[in-house]
Design brief:
The chain is of the alpha+beta class. It contains eight helices and 18 strands. The protein starts with 9 loop residues before the first strand and ends with a helix.
Length: 349
């Protein structure tokens, strides 16, 4: 029997018509569905108890904007999953690695997203909830890629409660197998997210190997010994923020407030050079994985008025949305408008 407390917060599984599987993993499956002519996502999960726990935590942090519509029960009143708001633009992971089209973003977009992520962490800290699995795949994109929302609170835990080591190895902080949930571990994950945004690579993946793969045990050992990913190809100001996020000692990591203040400061300085921040542009194949403009050293700002150096930060930002810098040979291109992917189905819906 469905608890009375959930009387206005549940659906029957047969109310949905399965349309398209979006994602699958150890937790279960996520698919695009229809409910009363509304586009929704349903997350079918393997453990009924985890379903109820995740629903409770989603409701607790509903101000994070990502909406859970209700719990899905089958005909025997057993929890089967969650009905969620559908995100048409996909995740930050798909922005980084490419998905149907490839997103060309620059340092100004990174700062915008990181400021919002810091705001989420401030909120979670206030609620005394630790996400424990922050990564690009758990960050959804909205409003033409200008807004992010954190999702998947499946393994989140209340601050200072005892938990088992869990999450995605390449993004979680080094901890013992049993430890206390700590919001400072989420800050470590933020450092990893910022690294991937800048370098557009899978962390700890050996791209030179014959069959590139991530060795989880090796990563945990290296990170536990204090090893971190290389930062020498990006600006010192960015290096400082990432290093402060993923510091080995928890007390040395940036707080959510410090990260937020830093991103606000950077945004204000960038605004003086880039008056109109536009949504990231969507392009076809030729510029896959181009490093985000403004995250690496370049010399072309001497060539004309198309670029502007951000005071005190060293960032170089393009004044025009259709300018791209290729870090391999330091050349510039004005991209032909016909190359812009008309992706209205996603960005204007």
């Amino acid at each position: 029997m469905i608890p009375e407390a959930l009387s206005n917060f549940y659906f029957r599984l047969d109310e949905f018509e399965k349309k398209l599987e979006i994602q699958a993993g150890g937790f279960g499956k996520v698919s695009y569905n229809k409910l009363n002519n509304q586009d929704v996502a349903i997350k079918i999960m393997n453990d009924p108890q985890e379903i109820l726990q995740e629903a409770n935590k989603h409701k607790h942090v509903k101000d994070c904007k990502f909406e859970i519509l209700g719990i899905i029960f089958n005909e025997t009143d057993s929890p089967k999953g969650l009905a969620l708001e559908l995100c048409y633009l996909g995740t930050l992971y798909q922005v980084i690695v490419g998905w149907e089209v490839h997103t060309l973003y620059n340092i100004s977009h990174i700062v915008l997203w990181m400021e919002q992520l810091a705001t989420v962490l401030l909120y979670l800290k206030e609620k005394e909830l630790v996400h424990r699995d922050l990564k690009p795949l758990n960050i959804l994109m909205f409003d033409k890629y200008r807004e992010i929302r954190v999702c998947d609170f499946g393994i989140s835990a209340w601050e200072k409660t005892e938990v088992q080591l869990a999450g995605t190895v390449t993004f979680i902080a080094p901890n013992s197998s049993t430890h206390l949930a700590d919001h400072r571990d989420d800050m470590y994950s933020v450092g990893m997210i910022l690294w991937q945004l800048i370098f557009r690579k899978h962390p700890y993946l050996d791209y030179n190997a014959e069959n590139p793969a991530i060795d989880n045990d090796d990563v945990m050992k290296r990170v536990g010994n204090g090893e971190r990913l290389p930062l020498d190809e990006t600006h010192s100001s960015i290096q400082e923020v990432i290093s402060s996020c993923w510091a080995h000692e928890k007390d040395e990591r940036l707080s959510p407030q410090e990260l937020h203040d830093k991103m606000v400061e950077w945004r204000e300085k960038i605004k003086t050079s880039m008056k109109n921040l536009k949504s990231p542009r969507l392009f076809k194949e030729p510029y896959t994985f181009a490093r985000p403009h403004g995250t690496f050293s370049c010399t072309h700002i001497k060539l004309g008025a198309d670029y502007q150096k951000v005071k005190d930060l060293g960032f170089c930002v393009p004044k025009f949305a259709n300018l791209i810098h290729n870090p391999r040979d330091n050349r510039d291109w004005r991209l032909n408008k016909r190359m812009i992917a008309e992706h209205n189905k996603l960005v204007t819906r």
